[in-house]
Amino acid sequence: MPSAESRPAPALVRLRDVHLSFGASPVLKGIDLDVFRGQAVTIIGPSGSGKSTILRCITGLLRPQRGTIEVDGTRADLLSSERDEIELRKRVGFVFQQYNLFPHLSVLDNLVVAPVRILGRDKASAKRTAYELLEKVRLADKAHAYPGQLSGGQQQRVAIARALAMQPDLILFDEVTSALDPETVGEVLTVIRELVRDGMTCVLVTHEMRFAEEVSDAVYFTESGVIVEHGPANRVFHAPANPRTREFLARATDPAQRAQHAQGRADRAAARTALPLELRNFAI
């Protein structure tokens, strides 16, 4: 019988047979997914394939009709109270497509408010941590600026720092560069790259295929709410077993197709911005 030391560590995140529908429209059709502590896992696939919905299920924003979702032993699909939801979200950071910063608060206060109110940290300690995180995302000089005074890339880096301020076990990134000008995409990807290098457990949804190949330990390809293929990043990107994966990657890495996808993402981002704030994070 193997010793406790030789047994593989359990997955930090474990989804099994997860099904979710919006009304009569099925979105997830039996999702199995594992994320181990210290891993970077990327979910790729065409728009509308259920990628963002998977992230929302992991953090309890959406509840599946069937299946199990465990986050470090907590059943995210069975949260029974607002207190349980808050406890889970203390441990799971979420960075959305839209930055969702409080426009009336300074950058510093955006990072301080949740650790003080939710974690109960004293304000002086929370401020020290906030300054350290702003240094990490190269925005220490913007601590007293307001979100409206920042570029999109700067706002997204603040959003990442805000997620880190809660000291989560896991961070979910949902197409965080999709609404950005191409010139600012690199600065956000650099921050994420450094987090992965430092061992932060991450789950990413992205259309940046080269970046996904570079940073990911494992990749899941989804289509129509199903995991079509998954495996180590090098194998999925260079020797995919499924013809649909090969077709998707060929198109996703073609310059003309990338430009078309970028325009589509910009159009979707504009449409999301037109929604009321409370609805934006639930778009698929």
UniProtKB/TrEMBL annotation:
GO MF annotation terms: ABC-type amino acid transporter activity; ATP binding; ATP hydrolysis activity
Keywords for the protein's UniProt record, in alphabetical order: Amino-acid transport, ATP-binding, Cell inner membrane, Cell membrane, Membrane, Nucleotide-binding, Transport
One term under GO cellular component: plasma membrane
Residue ranges of every copy of the ABC transporter domain listed in the record: 13-249
Pfam families assigned: ABC_tran
Family according to the record: Belongs to the ABC transporter superfamily.
Listed name of the protein: Amino acid ABC transporter ATP-binding protein
Organism field: Trinickia terrae
